[in-house]
Specification:
Elements lengths: L5 H18 L12 H15 L5 H8 L3 H14 L2 E6 L2 E9 L5 H22 L7 H15 L6
Antiparallel strand pairs: 1-2
Helix pairs in contact: 1-5, 2-3, 2-4, 3-4
Length: about 150
């Protein structure tokens, strides 16, 4: 393989995000499709996992999402039991966000759907002509996840 440049890496990341969205099971009461709201919730959850006791404004700065979208995502994550919020002891006007100590019911549902949903999404992306590459691509993704993914209880 040749060297991957920044543009190729960025486009690969976008393709992987789309595959990840396909592999997520439909949320309870969902509309049958994922909107940009789900993407922002996942992005915010990842940022909060990497930066405990962060604020909505700090998350907005790091992710590039509008503050209103981050606030909405935090509200959804709090409702689902994935994050907890508390006033900042240093400045009670600010609210700190951190991952909840245990996995939420939604995360449990996503994990229960597990690898089979990922395999299905990968198989669709590869198509019939490249179906033999499924194991190779899955193994490569496992290596990337081991080295680069933000992991936590959620």
């Amino acid at each position: 393989m040749g060297r991957v440049d920044g543009i190729e890496l960025f486009l690969l990341g976008r393709a992987l995000m789309k595959l990840g969205e396909e592999a997520l099971p439909e949320p309870p009461g969902g509309s049958g499709q994922y909107a940009g709201g789900t993407r922002s919730v996942v992005i915010v959850a990842g940022d909060v996992a990497a930066h405990p006791d962060t604020t909505v404004g700090e998350t907005a700065q790091r992710t590039g999402l509008p503050q209103s979208q981050v606030s909405g995502a935090v509200a959804r994550l709090r409702e689902a039991g994935s994050v907890v919020t508390a006033p900042d002891p240093a400045d009670r006007r600010r609210t700190l966000v951190r991952q909840a100590p245990g996995a939420s019911a939604r995360v449990a549902a996503v994990r229960a759907a597990g690898a089979s949903k990922v395999e299905e999404a990968l198989a669709r992306a590869l198509g019939e002509e490249d179906a033999g590459s499924l194991a190779e691509v899955r193994d490569a993704l496992e290596v990337l996840a081991r080295h680069l993914a933000v992991r936590g209880p959620h």
